[in-house]
Amino acid sequence: MDDKKLLKSEKIRLKNDKLRAKGKDPLKGWGKMVNTGLGGLNKASLVDTKDFAKDLQKDIAKENERKKL
Fold first, then answer.
1. pTM of the prediction?
2. What is the rounded distance in angstroms from the CA atom of residue 41 to the CA atom of residue 50?
C-alpha cells in the first residue's frame, strides 16, 4: 500500500515539474466561482438573477486584475 502511494506522489511530482518548466503553476486552482443564485430559480425573476451574476463576475474580474499587479 505504501509503495502505491509513493509511486503516485512521484508521478504527480514529475508532472508538476514538467508544468513548472512550461511556466505554469500546477497548484493555482480555479480561483473564485460566481454564485449565480440559480438555486431558487422558480422563486426569482430571471432578469434579476442575470444582472446579479453579471455584476458578481465583473467584481471578481476586477479583484483578480488587482492581484496580478
1. 0.42
2. 11
